[in-house]
Amino acid sequence: MAAAGCARSTRSNVPTDTASSTSIKRNNRLERTGLFREFVELQPSEPQILGFANKFGVLTDGQDLTVDTDFGRTLVHGETLQLWQDEIRALSLAVSLWDATSVGGNRLAAELKAALVKTRIAARGPASTPRYL
Fold first, then answer.
1. How far apart are CA 21 and CA 39, in angstroms?
2. What pLDDT shows up at residue 53?
3. Which of 86, 80, 57, 54 is nearest to 67 (CA)?
4. How far apart are CA 106 and CA 94, in angstroms?
5. Which whole number is the average pLDDT over 54-74?
6. Which residues fall within 8 angstroms of residue 123, CB to CB, at 6 or more apart?
7. Are 19 and 5 in contact (CB under 8 A)?
8. What angle do CA 39, 124, 44 make, to 5 degrees?
9. Secondary structure (DSSP) of the chain
10. How many CB atoms lie within 10 A of CB 52?
């Protein structure tokens, strides 16, 4: 088990925590400044993300996911590893852009802005591909 009250982690899912520890994690997040910088410094690997999630909680309300466990397929409530990796990447670009514009680095800011636009266009995919939320 990844943490007390958490479902077993799989390569594609980050489990949510139990309700009893949610308020503790919420308070832990509220007492920290610069948590967003710790988040963007995460390696996008399962162990790094799972450690952060176990310490600070989940990104969203989560969703019901079916995962393979030692006991067969099980329904858990959690978030996908891909969601975390995407959010780390997106916030990293935003923080880099913020830092570049804050110090007046016009050339770097322009490069980062172009990277954000390119990433957003790539994330949309071809016009014929439906994207679901």
1. 20
2. 92
3. 80
4. 15
5. 90
6. 86
7. no
8. 25
9. --STTPPPPBTTEEEPPPHHHHHHHHHHHHT-SSHHHHHHTS-SSHHHHHHHHHHH--SSS-EEEEEEETTEEEEEEEEEHHHHHHHHHHHHHHHHHHHHHHTT-HHHHHHHHHHHHHHHHHHH--TTS----
10. 19
Q: How many residues in the chain? A: 133
Judge contact between 65 and 77, C-beta under 8 A. yes
Question: What is the pLDDT, as a whole number, of residue 43?
Answer: 94
Instruction: Give the tokens for residue 118.
Output: 């390119």
Q: What pLDDT, in 10s, does the model give residues 22-63?
A: 555 555 555 667 899 999 999 999 999 999 999 998 899 888
- What is the model's pLDDT at position 73? 94
- Look-up of token digits 């799989």: 10
